[in-house]
Amino acid sequence: MHFSKQIHEFYTYTVFLVSVTMVSKPCKRIFVLLFTYILFVWANTLTRATSKEERLMETMIRDDVQALKLIQTNLESCILGKSDEISLLLTAMLAGGHVLLEDVPGTGKTVLIKALAKSIHGQFRRIQCNPDLLPTDITGVSIYHPKDEVFIFRPGPIMTHILLADEINRATTKTQSALLEAMEERSVTVDGETHELPKPFLLLATQNPIDFEGTYTLPEAQLDRFMMKFSLGYPDAETETRMIASQSVSHPLEGLEAVSSVEQIRSLQLQVKQVHLDEAVAAYLVGITRATREHPAVYLGASPRATLALVQASKAYALLQQRDYVIPDDIKFLAPYVLGHRLILQAEARMEGASVSSVLQSVFQQVRVPVRWEK
pTM (2 decimals)? Predict the structure, then answer.
C-alpha cells in the first residue's frame, strides 16, 4: 500500500510537469496526455492489486489465529484446569522453543503432548528413553549397501515435527548429548554428513523428579537449550471430579482431530517475529537476566541464550493473547519458566533455605518496571 501511495505522489508530480510542458510545448500535447493516462491506469491497477494482496494476507492471519484457538480448545478438553500450562506449551511452540515437563507420574504430561501432536496435521514420533538407548537410535544411521557400494542414511525418529522424549533422564549422558545439535541448530550430523530437520521442529521431553535409581542428570548445556521447564501439578478436587465424568465413557484424546497444519504453525512463528518489543520493555527484560548473574545466592545465572529465549517467548505469549506488542507483565509471568531451570544456586544459599523461586522474586523487586512504553 505504501508503494502505491508513492506511485500516486509520483503521478501528481508528473501531472504538474505535464501542465508546464503543455504550456511551453503545445506541439507535444497529445503525447503528454497519452503518457499521463497510461501512468494513471498503471497506478490504479497497482493499488487494486496491492489492496487485494493485503486482504488475502489478513484472511490468512485470521485463519492462523483461529487454528491456534482450536488447538487450545483441543488441549483444554484433554487436560482440565491447566489453562496456564497449556498457554506455556503453545507459547513455546510459537516461539520455536523446546519444553521440559517435570512432574510426578500420572499428572498428564504425555497426554498433553499427544493432544498437541494430534491437533496438528504433521509428523509425530516418540522415544522411550532408557539406559540401552543409543545416539543412533535417535538421530539415525548410515547403512552400507554392498550391491550399490554406497552408504544410505536411514533417518531416526528425530526427523519429525514433534518429538516426545519420554523420561529423558533415563537415557545416558552420551545419548542425551545426541540431542544438543538438533535442539540448537535444527540438524543432525551422522558420519560427517549434516541432515536438516523438518520445520517446525519441537522437542517435548518429560521426566519424573522423584526417580533417582537408573536416571542421569541432564547437563547444564542441555537444560539451557530447553526454552521452558514447568510442571502440571495435581488437579484440584473440582477438576478431578470433572475429569472422572469426562472419561467415564472414553478418553477425550480418542476423538481428537487435527485442527491445524504445519504451514499454519510456521506462519504463526513468522508473525511472532513481527510483535513489537519496546526499548524500555527490552531494558526491563535484560535487567532481569543480568540481575540473576549478579545475585549473591546464584552460582550460575541466566545465559545470553536465556535472554533471547525470554524475548521470543514474550513475543509469542503476546501473540497468544492477541496483542502485537509485549508488556512487562508478559515477561514477569514467563521468567520463572524460562529462567528457573537455568539458575544454579550457591551451596551456602541452598543450605540457608534459598530457592530459585525466592531468588526470582528478589530479582523482580530489584529491577524497576517501566511505566511507559510504545505499543
Answer: 0.82
